[in-house]
Amino acid sequence: MIEIKIKEQLEKQNKNIQWLSLEAKIPYPTLHKLVNNKTESVKFGFIERICLALDCTPNDIIQVSPDPQLTLFE
C-alpha cells in the first residue's frame, strides 16, 4: 500500500495546502485529493514540484507498506 505523507511534512514546516498549491503551482483540488490519499495516480512532475517546495525527498512524502490483500503472483 502506498500512502502519501505530504500532510505530515506541511505540519512539520507550519505550512498548509493552500501555500503548497501556490508554491508548487499545482491546482488546489488536485493537491487536496493527493494530500488526503483520495487519488489513484500522481504525475512525477507534481512529486518533483512538491519536493522542491518542501525541500524534501520523495521518501519524505511517500510511504510504501505491505498490503496483505496484494499478491504479486497468482
Fold and architecture overview:
The protein has 74 residues and is mainly α. It has a single domain (2-64), classed as lambda repressor-like DNA-binding domains (434 Repressor (Amino-terminal Domain)). It has 5 helices and 2 strands, in the order E-H-H-H-H-H-E. The chain has helices at residues 6-12, 17-24, 28-35, 44-54, 58-61, and strands spanning 2-4, 62-64. It has a two-stranded antiparallel sheet. The longest helix has 11 residues, at 44-54. It is elongated, with a radius of gyration of 13 Å. The two termini are 18 Å apart.
Could you write a compact summary of the structure shown?
It comes from Natranaerovirga pectinivora. Helix content is 51%, strand content 8%.
Strands, helices and their partners?
Blueprint: E1 2-4, H1 6-12, H2 17-24, H3 28-35, H4 44-54, H5 58-61, E2 62-64
Antiparallel strand pairs: 1-2
Helix pairs in contact: 2-3
**Architecture in CATH?**
Orthogonal Bundle
* Overall geometric form: elongated
Strand order of the largest sheet: 1-2
Q: What is the typical, i.e. mean, pLDDT?
A: 92
Total domains, how many?
A: 1
Total strands: 2
Estimated radius of gyration: 13 Å
Can you tell me the CATH superfamily?
lambda repressor-like DNA-binding domains
- CATH topology-level name: 434 Repressor (Amino-terminal Domain)
CATH class: Mainly Alpha
Give the termini separation: 18 Å
Q: Please state the structural category.
A: mainly alpha
Which ranges are low-confidence, i.e. pLDDT below 50, for 5 or more consecutive residues? none
| Major β-sheet profile | 2 strands, antiparallel
Q: Roughly what fraction of the amino acids lie in strands? A: 5-15%
Helix share bin: 40-55%
SSE topology string: EHHHHHE
Number of helices: 5
